[in-house]
């Protein structure tokens, strides 16, 4: 509908014009004002799209009213209604941006023609505004997808250099020198809170939220000037925790240390995960730097060395070797006369580490907890063996549910939907896998990450479309899934060592 305001000090003139408009146009909502002052007040209430303005009125003149309305409502259109078609008025009207004029008296056909011309402009602008709004909505949705992909690439080493650079530019949040990671641990029933968490982080303007992985959400946070690291982290943690319902006390946030190089962000992520291992605390966040020193140094190995060893065992499903390694650790602890409580603490950290690695592989296991009644090494061995067996059974069950041809299904899905805004999260949801596990599986089976495969599909389609000399590069870019032709050109040039335009000329010649 188009809002119309008729401004004239003569009631009969207003009523006559309204009658003509309502008889010839069916999409107008007409309001009347008897002078310029009333017109300005009414315009604030319903924001007119089109104003018919008489020039000669008591009080505020028509031209002065137009000037003030134009300033308050710049998109409004104006038709001057006057009995004085003089050059002086015409000059002022042009300066004020009046769209057209009607001279009193005018024939009905002339009035309708004039109004139709201005309405066509309004309709065209409204269509353009709607198109812009839809594009902005699309970009906003795409940004959310880009954000989770960037976080995944940074934290899990699935980096495709040119894409990462472009995605970071698109997100529009400057990468500060100092950065750290927070990991939010949610209860099983709180997955619906993901969007709210993402919105809170977005409003801070200083963080990126990763994909929900099992019960855990990673958040990369960039240091703000003028605030200490701890102040910023606690403030964001409290905002996130404020989303909890009364029954959701299990929410917990681990906070990693600050690092400068972007490549070190994975280390902060690992620290943030470790900081969530003791989530039964009154304060529902924990800084890694405040944790007691890790005790996983049984054979003078670093935590990283243990992580790599256990990851290798779990990845290749070498459970016999893993169980043997854990038995060796228990024997060493007993031989060194460690108390059962001390040994239990170290084994709990090992079990926690195994659970975390399995979760990264897409296999959700319940966090293992020892009985508080463990009193001797015999019971410790039995409970440890039981929890390891549960993890083994969970992994085997998961692998049975995952078809051997899952990669072919993923490939086919990417090929068929390459022109869409595909993301790791969307593809993994189609495959029924976690984003992290799907990405690792894809790379291990094909030797290429999913972004590179998606890029190949898009570029092959682009090469075919270039045979059509009628299609512009912008159209081809959009057809294959790139909204930015400049970005498409960079990706194409990196792959084929020539610009799309040069490639097309070569093909067509």
UniProtKB/TrEMBL annotation:
Residues 323-350 form a coiled coil. The modification 4-aspartylphosphate is found at residue 54. InterPro entries: CdaR_GGDEF, CheY-like_superfamily, Homeodomain-like_sf, HTH_AraC, Sig_transdc_resp-reg_receiver, Tscrpt_reg_AraC-type_HTH. Keywords: Coiled coil, DNA-binding, Phosphoprotein, Transcription, Transcription regulation. GO terms for biological process: phosphorelay signal transduction system. CDD domains: REC_YesN-like (cd17536). Residues 408-506 form the HTH araC/xylS-type domain. The keyword Transcription applies. GO terms for molecular function: DNA-binding transcription factor activity; sequence-specific DNA binding. It holds the Pfam family HTH_18. Residues 3-119 form the Response regulatory domain. This is DNA-binding response regulator.
